Amino acid sequence: MLEEKPAKSIDLFLGFCYMNGYTRWAFKVMPSWSIHILSLALCLSSGFQQGYIAAVLNQPYKQIEKYIKDSYHERTGLELDENVKNIIWSALNISFPIATIVGQFAASVLCKRFGRKRTALFSSFLYIPGGLISVAAKYCHPYYELLFVGRFIWSFANGINGVVATVWIVECAPPQIRGRMAAMQEMFMSIGSVVTQAIGVPASTDDLWPLVFVPGMVVAALSMVMFAFVYESPQFIIEKTGDRDRARHALAAYHGVEVDDPSLEEEMRVCEQAVQKKNNKKSPKKGQLIEEEHDGLTIMLKPWKANDPTSKVIRHAAWVGLLVKVVYVFTGARCLRGYSTFLLHDLSHWSTNGALYGSFFVGLARVPVTLIPVFLVDRLGRRPLLLSSTLICALSLLTMMLSIFAGEEFKVGTLVGLSALLLLSACGIGSISRFYAAELVPRSLLLNATSYLTMFEALTKIAVEFAFYPVANVAGAWSLMLFLAPTTLFLIPMWAMCQETSKKHVNEVLNEIAVRKNLKVSFTS
């Protein structure tokens, strides 16, 4: 555990600001070392690994496809049909979101029983056997199925860590910097993608392609070391032990204040009332934080049963959070990042080297671009970044589709459209979709709601990513309509329904939703 004196882990520095013609003191909260280390460990174990897994098959896809075809021929004496090969390749890609769903279900159980810290350590360890099995596939020829086994274990671990990262940072980060801390996930996802592409360019040979799986294991070991030196979530401490002093000490370290600082009272009340809510589902007391009598799944999926005003507000908030996650999937930013080399080479007729390096440099450019939401998401707010980036995604998809239709002489247009899609989605919806839903649901439902919502998101990814590769091989540019049509249509409900959550406690957001829906219910601390 990281031992530090909370008072020294944060600096309150004074600056002048001019408001209404007067000079006033402005205080800015600087993040503590504890929250920095926690955020970095979560980014390495979740965002980095997700970006790495999503892109790891991108660069050497020709060599791995050849390995699969050769393995099939050696075992059967037959040539692998091209259509069957496309289906196998799609299945290998979607084993990522399928295993992620399983991991997300497991995360809820593991976090409740063992806590955020031990769950993160366990799931980070799983990356190592997942990577080793993937490497072993090459040397256990002709058993290419090991690629599926390794990818499943790796992705299962990432599904667990995706939930842990969202829940843990929301429970521990001060509201003033919560968006900034959570937005770092997208930046590390970009770094993970760049690392795998940087390894993938020189390793895209018949002999070296197993090397692309190695860096993920090294980063997993590093994240495990970092997790060993952070505090457990104060929410879990109260739920499991009821030790208020220990929970407050952890929260003070994460917030970078003294243990007796009055600013902790609000968060401590939220933690304690979340536990009270779970212990009093059947007999809610007057004045409790959340007064609904239903669990998260009932509220979300059974409106005929959970039809009280409180449940209606929470259900609306949860589905708005899901809407943002699903829209990000349909922008195609995730899918096309994994198929960027294929898109440039097979559909736009770039040379093999041109496609490899074009894909790499787009990934490289994403790293500094993903810093933009880290600095702006708490200043400009979630809503403007969500709407503007989604509109740009639609325009980028249209540009790519028209460029492919126009032929090889307009292949630069495809690269420009792909660059705009991957870079600018990262500035808005790509970053915000990771934590926006968690800012819309009560703390007592946060863990389950995060698991359910990320599961629904993963189901959408499975459908989209499984369909794209075979359809693109047949339909060419028209396959981009899988992304363009829903992205354009979803802009309307996003404009109408997405709430601003920046620098607000969840109760404030839920009260705003209740007012908009004209429901007589109040969420109070």
Automatic annotation (TrEMBL):
<dbReference type="GO" id="GO:0015149">
    <property type="term" value="F:hexose transmembrane transporter activity"/>
</dbReference>
<keyword id="KW-0472">Membrane</keyword>
<keyword id="KW-0812">Transmembrane</keyword>
<feature type="transmembrane region" description="Helical">
    <location>
        <begin position="87"/>
        <end position="107"/>
    </location>
</feature>
<feature type="transmembrane region" description="Helical">
    <location>
        <begin position="33"/>
        <end position="53"/>
    </location>
</feature>
<feature type="transmembrane region" description="Helical">
    <location>
        <begin position="445"/>
        <end position="469"/>
    </location>
</feature>
<dbReference type="InterPro" id="IPR005828">
    <property type="entry name" value="MFS_sugar_transport-like"/>
</dbReference>
<feature type="domain" description="Major facilitator superfamily (MFS) profile">
    <location>
        <begin position="39"/>
        <end position="502"/>
    </location>
</feature>
<protein>
    <recommendedName>
        <fullName>Major facilitator superfamily (MFS) profile domain-containing protein</fullName>
    </recommendedName>
</protein>
<feature type="transmembrane region" description="Helical">
    <location>
        <begin position="119"/>
        <end position="139"/>
    </location>
</feature>
<dbReference type="InterPro" id="IPR020846">
    <property type="entry name" value="MFS_dom"/>
</dbReference>
<keyword id="KW-1133">Transmembrane helix</keyword>
<dbReference type="InterPro" id="IPR036259">
    <property type="entry name" value="MFS_trans_sf"/>
</dbReference>
<feature type="transmembrane region" description="Helical">
    <location>
        <begin position="384"/>
        <end position="406"/>
    </location>
</feature>
<feature type="transmembrane region" description="Helical">
    <location>
        <begin position="208"/>
        <end position="231"/>
    </location>
</feature>
<feature type="transmembrane region" description="Helical">
    <location>
        <begin position="317"/>
        <end position="336"/>
    </location>
</feature>
<dbReference type="Pfam" id="PF00083">
    <property type="entry name" value="Sugar_tr"/>
</dbReference>
<dbReference type="GO" id="GO:0016020">
    <property type="term" value="C:membrane"/>
</dbReference>
<dbReference type="InterPro" id="IPR045263">
    <property type="entry name" value="GLUT"/>
</dbReference>
<feature type="transmembrane region" description="Helical">
    <location>
        <begin position="356"/>
        <end position="377"/>
    </location>
</feature>
<feature type="transmembrane region" description="Helical">
    <location>
        <begin position="475"/>
        <end position="496"/>
    </location>
</feature>
<feature type="transmembrane region" description="Helical">
    <location>
        <begin position="182"/>
        <end position="202"/>
    </location>
</feature>
<feature type="transmembrane region" description="Helical">
    <location>
        <begin position="151"/>
        <end position="170"/>
    </location>
</feature>
<feature type="transmembrane region" description="Helical">
    <location>
        <begin position="412"/>
        <end position="433"/>
    </location>
</feature>
